[in-house]
Every structure is written in structure tokens, then in C-alpha cells.
Automatic annotation (TrEMBL), chain B:
Keywords: ATP-binding, Cell membrane, Membrane, Nucleotide-binding, Translocase, Transport. Belongs to the ABC transporter superfamily. Spermidine/putrescine importer (TC 3.A.1.11.1) family. The complex is composed of two ATP-binding proteins (PotA), two transmembrane proteins (PotB and PotC) and a solute-binding protein (PotD). One of its GO terms (molecular function) is ABC-type polyamine transporter activity. This is Spermidine/putrescine import ATP-binding protein PotA. It is an enzyme of class 7 (translocase). GO terms for biological process: putrescine transport. The keyword Translocase applies. GO terms for cellular component: ATP-binding cassette (ABC) transporter complex. Residues 5-235 form the ABC transporter domain. Pfam families: ABC_tran, TOBE_2. Part of the ABC transporter complex PotABCD involved in spermidine/putrescine import. Responsible for energy coupling to the transport system.
Amino acid sequence: MVMALTTPADKAAPKARRGMMQRYAADTAFMTFVAILMAFLYIPIWVLIVFSFNDSRSLTWPLTGFTLEWYEKLWNNSQLQDAIGNSFYVASCATVLTLLVGVPAALALHRVNFPGKKVFRRLVVLPITLPGVVTGISMLNLFRVLGFNLSLETVILGHATALLAVVVTQVSARLERLPKSLEEASADLGAPPLHTFLHVTLPNIRSAVIGAGLLSFVLSFDEIPVTFFLTGRDNTLPMYIYSTMRRGVTPEINAVGTLIVLFSLILIIGAVIATRERKK
Amino acid sequence: MASIIELDKLSKHYASIAAVDDVSFSVEDGEFVTLLGPSGCGKSTLLRMIGGFEEPSGGVIRLAGQDVTWTPPYRRDVNMVFQDYALFPHMTIGENIAYGLKLMKLGRTETAQRVTDALELVGLHDKIDQRPHQLSGGQRQRIALARAIVRQPKVLLLDEPLSALDAKLREQMQLELKHLHEKVGITFIMVTHDQTEALVMSDRVVVMEKGRVAQEGSPHLLYDHPRTPYVANFIGTTNFLDGQIARAAEGTARISVAGVELEAVTDSPRRAGEAITLGFRPEKVRLLSEGESGENEIPGEIAEVVYYGLGLRLAVAVAGGGRVYVDSLLPDRLADTAVPAVGQPVRMALSPGNIFLFDAEVA
């Protein structure tokens, strides 16, 4: 009996070892690939951060020393600060505006059946596939026809329109996954439609709304083509950086970039905390 | 007793299809009524119209004498237990149950008291601070019930409430629901496709077929006096044989079927020569032993024997190509001795009162 039990195990051992070796090799190859991918994605950002503290105007190796000079310059550069302020203003307003229009639009698309609904759904999403140049020129023409003066507000309108697609697709996707019976149960328990929306629908699509909002904010923050056509005298941050680029990349720009990376990191952490899904 | 729900010529059409077609019936206060039928027979649509989630294409719904046909669900004094329970995932169990009470603008102490009472009623008071995903299917089911009855509605609607549970739990919940109905005294209207559920739980069953009411009545009535082959087949198992009336008299008829003549009780007048479909339950058929004789003897030959623990089901081939199922419990004697063998000739007996007669064209 004992013999019978040990024999197959002895035979199986080398096979198992070989299998393990193979799996180890495959794992190593895969991990190497992941490491290269991550390096490809993040090394440029590390270069940016490192040079923002480097004690030299020229962006060349080797590093010469540590300095906060570029951050100090940034602190005193009112043009740059205006540009950052404008970018925050535009991105915030565009995000709020696009959420205010996009969330109800997604709800309407989800709830109401009307002729041409499918076409409408496609039309809402279409602008995301249009090049920004086209969106920019067409909105410029429209604003001219309407007699608007170009300003940051026209930029906001342009961004909000272009970003509507992002919000509608994200929120729609979440609504599709929300069982219809939840809203019905709420109505059944005596809740009028608005109460149902605030207490049942909204809490369940909250993370999608926050996610779409953050994405909109970031997209608007670094948007160039539409901004290029629609802005008046004021510049947003990417436009300012673009215009200074004629003099080459300055360490100051690196400092701004580093600050933006830091800010993005805070946003991402905030988003993760805010949208953390409860364990199912 | 007064009718709590009255449906008057209620219809629901989707494009050209009639999901519910000219349905009228009423439900007494405190009754447990089941809408029974296969999927697509319109039973759920009917329930959803009573709840206010579907607008009827025609007809009137009255709740406690008042026309509520066009009243939105949030102003109807009925509550529903949804098939998927529809518990709010972002709220605790306590908040789920209090949701409907807060909307009734009850005081804080009364709300809390009622929530506790409802949880006591379903035996889950220790779950008040948990979230729906932490509970088992059966527990969620009970919370859905508690959330619906805590508002003390005039009518409780249950949409296939037990279909998501496993067989054992389902059986247990059937009785629990029945007891709950007796305890709270609210009118229950349940939708199910499970005939056992309907028979076990309800005072009255409404069998639906293609959007119409096929027959309604007590479980007894439906089982013993089905009006159509559809009802006979949907509730329990029924043997069907085609035959012809040989002679008809007041209240009885002789039918030639499967090479013999059978006597049957009939409540509608029959003409000789009329084609007829004859139905009877497998458990009403008695196998005759050697030398024994009985009413309405039918000879046949055993074609198949199925053992299912509680008893035996025999398929008996009869003259004319038909097959008759015979259910018999296994008495000790039979279990020890002779389980009938395939191919063995048998004689069956059937009392005239246990035969249903259906017009042939209905079948």
C-alpha cells in the first residue's frame, strides 16, 4: 500500500520541478516586460522632476547641483501665475458646466424613450472623435456669428461642449449597470422622482460622476487646440508653456511641470478615496 | 368583506402584442391571491400595473374603491417585493427599512420603533447596521419583505419572491410567507410560475394564459375541477386521452376511449358522437391486482417505471397509442415484493368523479 502510494509521487516530482521552472521563467519574462513598460511611462516624468531641481540652465547631463531657484523664479513670474490661475478657472468652470448638462442628459438618455434616441446618443459622443482643431474652428465661427467676444468664457463653453461626450458616456455606462428596480423600489416606498434621484440614483452613480468630473478637469486643464481658437487675450497654462517654448525648455517650465505632477497625484489620491467602491 | 383591489377590463398592449388582455377580477381584503402562469403570460405586467410601474392601455384599477389607474407608484398605498429584492446597496439594513417611513413623515421615535418591529417580525434584528451585500439571499429576501410591510400598505405585491432562492430554502420561505400573511393581515398578491408555491401559499389562484385569465379559484377547485386542459396541465400532472362520447345522460356520460368505455361525471350536457378530451390525475389511477375488479377498468402494458423515493411513476401504454402515467406510493409490501416490470400487462381503475372532460377543440 505504501509502495503504491509513493511510486507515482516519485515519478511526478521531476515533472513538477520542470513545470515550476517554466513558470518561473515565464513570470520573470512578464515582470521584465512590465518593468520596461513602467520605465517607458514614468522615466520622462522623473527627468522633468530631477531637472527642475538642477542647478543649471541647460538641460544636459550630468547634474550640477541642487537648487530651488526655478521655483523661486516661478513664484515671481506673474505671467506664469496668471496662466496657471486661468487654467484652473477654465478647467473648473468647464467641468461644472459639463457635469450640469451631461449628468441630466445621461439620465434622460437612460430613462426616456423618444424617436431618434440612438442617433442622439451617437451625436452626443461624436465630438470626442473630432479633432480639436475642427471643434475649435467651428466654435470660433459660431461665436463670431453670435457676436461673442473671445475670452476665457468662450474657452469654457468650448471645453464644456467637447467634454460633454466624456461625461455622458461614463455616466450612461454606470446607469446601464444600475438595476431599474432600485428606482422603482424607491418610488414604491413613496419617494417622488426628485427624492429618488437624490437619494437612490445619485449615490449609486456617484463614483462615475466624480470620475468623469476629474477626467474632464484634466482634459480641460491641458487642452490646446480648442483653447487656441477660442481664447482672447488671456492665456491658459499649456498655451503659455507652448509660447515660451520658442526659447527652449527652461528649468522654470520643469518646475511648473513638477508642481502639476504633484497636484495630479493629490487629485488621483482624492479620486481613489472618493470613488472607492464598497466591497461587493 | 369589501374588495381591496378591483381590476376592470385591464389591458396592456406593447405595439401589437397584448401582454394583458381584458383582465377583470377582484381581490378581497386580507386575501392571499397568486397569479400563476408560465413566463410571458402577462402575470408580471399585471402586477406591475397594480403597483403603478406600467400604465395600462385600457381599463381601470381600483384600490379600496378609489380609481388609481393613473396614480404614480409613490402615491399608491401598495408596496412591492421585487424579484431581485432591490435593496439599496448604499444604505444599511436599518436605513433601507426606514426609507419608506421617513417619506411618511413619521416621528423619529416611531420610525425607529417600526424598523425594530419589522426586523423582529422577520427575525433579523441583529442585522440592522449591516449592508445588503453582507446578507445571504434568504436574509435579503426577508429584509425586502420587512421594508415593504413596514409601511403597512393596503396591499403587498410580491413578484416571484422566492425564485432566487435554492429549493430547500424556498420550501421553508413558502410557509414563512404564509404565516407572515396570517400575522400581518395585509392583502398579498403574488406572482409565480411555480404551481406548488401557488397551491401551498394562496387562498385563491388566478391562472393566466396569454394575457387572459384562464381560471381562478381556490387551489382545491383548480386542482380538482380544471376548466381547460391548459389549467389541468399547468397545475399538477394530467393524463390526456382523446375519445368520443358513446352515450350521454343527465350528469354522466359514457366515453369510448383506448378501446374501452369509461363512465364519467359531467357538469355540462354532452351529445353522443361528440369528440372529447379526457383528463385524469396520475395519482387517482389505481392499479388492480390479479382477480380484483374496479370501476372504469383500462387495460394496458407497462412501458416505463420511474422510481422517485416517495413512490413509483409508471408509464402505461394503452390501446390507441396513448400513454397513461400512474403514480403510486410504495407500500412496504410492494417495495419488498414486486416492483412492476416493463412489458407486464396491467389493469387500471379510475372512479368516474376523477375524470375531467374537455371539449376536444380546446385541446
